[in-house]
Automatic annotation (TrEMBL), chain A:
Coiled coil ranges: none
GO BP terms, alphabetized: protein maturation
Record key words, sorted: Iron, Metal-binding
Superkingdom of the source species: Bacteria
InterPro entries assigned to the protein according to its UniProt record, in alphabetical order: Hyd_form_HypD, HypD_1, HypD_2_sf
Organism of provenance: Parafrankia soli
This protein's name: Hydrogenase formation protein HypD
Similarity-based family: Belongs to the HypD family.
TrEMBL record, chain B:
Listed GO biological process terms: protein maturation
Organism this protein belongs to: Parafrankia soli
A Pfam family of this chain: HupF_HypC
Protein family membership: Belongs to the HupF/HypC family.
One GO MF term: carbon dioxide binding
InterPro entries: Hydrogenase_HupF/HypC
Signal peptide limits: none
NCBIfam families on file: hypC_hupF
Name the UniProt record assigns to this protein: Hydrogenase assembly protein HupF
Length: 378, 90
């Protein structure tokens, strides 16, 4: 109980884990996918798996946007960044993600002008200050960051900036969930739904999961208690033979999402017919691109990057980690060839990546507890 | 980048209704509040900030809980705060 004891509501956590255990039907095993990388982080940080009965296992989902960007897109970004007069801007999380010829950091050290920014709006400032250069923002993220990119493009247009564009890699969570549910080797009994994505899209886009796939989903906050409570809600639905979308995170997430954010996304961006995800392959309509109306701000139209498909390095098992087929520590290079300092795969780069979260927080405890848990599950 | 960080609105820029000064763990920075157009925050309100944009209004208790969570995760939050400090939005 050490890790939950460190948390201020240790008593509540203990009571919740007891109630979770009571809800498990004898002889039945439950696998729940936490969709969001932020949840994965909390789970390892607080050792939440130690507080679940052996019958309940957690599967880490594809909700780390840095982790699912395929290498080919990193290479395309590099291609754009290397053009004359280009300044590329990127969130810090993206800087160490390996492309087939190194990361943004490596390219920067070799003289390519790639600058880390906190916000897409910082890129606008760089564009204004460098009128003779082309500033390209490497836009990544799920619906939590998409409206920010869209609003930035709208602002650039309103200002009449002619030297700013985005390389759009925004992805959407719902098609990815559908792809996971359609995949034959994934067995999931329910979902811990993403919190911050849902502040934008609301709860209704998940309705197809109970309706078409018969699995419950509970939108969840990020604290240890939130996640335990969400697991409790999932188990209660299963016990009561109910199957619906529930919102555990009502203190932040409104059922209808943020209509202003949705409207600005829709004005500037449109769904892309096809996008490749690392680990999940190509998923139709799972990403966004710039609408014709804002073509002047679309780096793909301006710089026509090659768009080559690049295989992941052979040693890399990110794909299996991202679909929950293996746990991070089961990857052959985990902690040896692949560490946060020298990542081979993107799951080791972002703090939301399952491998990085496990590397930073999970290892010590795993050695002590996991073998026993594995045995009791077998 | 995926972290939502809570900030307290200090003032709305008189010349720019879409820009607010917020206080995040003692760091004062401008952020964009255009995505909250339907219910614009007022000084004293708390917002959840993603990449320089307020994405939702939250109450003070939620802000405190979110801060507890963030300070608990250590380096990732320090990096995010350092990035926020280095940013200049207008
Ligand atoms: S250890 Fe590295 S290569 Fe293996 S799955 Fe994790 S990030 Fe990918």
């Amino acid at each position: 109980m050490r890790f939950v004891d460190e948390y201020r509501d240790a008593g509540t956590a203990r009571a919740l884990s007891a109630r979770i255990a009571e809800l498990c039907e004898p002889g039945r095993a439950y696998a729940f996918m936490e969709v969001c990388g932020g949840h994965t982080h909390t789970i390892y940080k607080h050792g939440l798996e130690d507080h679940l009965p052996p019958a309940v296992s957690l599967v880490h989902g594809p909700g780390c946007p840095v982790c699912v960007i395929p290498m080919g897109r990193v290479d395309d970004a590099m291609h754009i960044a290397r053009q004359d007069d280009v300044i590329m801007t990127s969130f810090g999380d993206m800087m160490r993600v390996p492309g087939s010829h190194g990361s943004f950091f490596d390219a920067n050290a070799e003289g390519t002008d790639i600058r880390m920014v906190y916000s897409p709006l910082d890129s606008l400032k760089i564009a204004r200050a460098n009128p003779d250069r082309q500033v390209v923002f490497m836009a990544i993220g799920f619906e939590t960051t998409t409206p920010s990119t869209a609003l930035t493009v709208r602002r650039a247009a309103a200002e009449g900036l002619t030297n700013f564009s985005i390389f759009c890699n925004h992805i959407t969570i719902v098609p990815a969930l559908r792809a996971i549910l359609d995949s034959p080797d994934v067995r999931i009994d329910g979902f811990v739904g993403p919190g911050h994505v849902s502040t934008v899209i609301g709860c209704r886009p998940y309705d197809f999961i109970p309706r078409d796939y018969g699995r419950p989903l509970v939108v969840s906050g990020f604290e240890p208690l939130d996640i335990l409570q969400s697991i409790h809600k999932l188990l209660r639905q299963l016990r009561d033979r109910r199957c619906e979308v529930e919102n555990q995170y009502t203190r932040v997430v409104a059922a209808e999402g943020n209509p202003v954010a949705l409207a600005v996304i829709d004005e500037v961006l449109e769904p892309r017919p096809d996008f490749e995800w690392r680990g999940l392959g190509r998923i139709p309509w799972s990403a966004m691109r710039v609408r014709e109306r804002y073509a002047a701000f679309d780096a793909e139209r301006i710089f026509a990057p090659p768009g080559a498909r690049v295989e992941d390095p052979k040693a890399c098992q990110c794909g299996e980690v991202l679909t929950g087929v293996i746990k991070p520590w089961e990857c052959k290079v985990f902690g040896t060839g692949c560490t946060p300092e020298t990542p081979i795969g993107a799951c080791m780069v972002s703090p939301e990546g399952a491998c990085a979260a496990y590397y930073n927080f999970g290892r010590a405890r795993h050695r002590a507890t996991e073998p026993a848990k594995e045995m009791s599950r077998a | 980048m995926c972290l939502g960080i809570p900030g307290e609105v200090v003032e709305i820029r008189p010349d720019r209704p879409d820009i607010a000064t917020v206080d995040v763990s003692g760091v004062r920075r401008a952020i964009n509040i255009g995505l909250l157009d339907e219910h614009p925050p007022r000084p004293g309100d708390w917002v959840l900030i993603h990449v320089g944009f307020a994405l939702s209004l939250i109450d003070e208790a939620e802000a405190r809980a979110a801060l507890d969570f963030l300070t608990g995760i250590g380096r990732a939050y320090d990096d995010e705060l350092a990035a926020l400090r280095a940013s200049s939005i207008d």
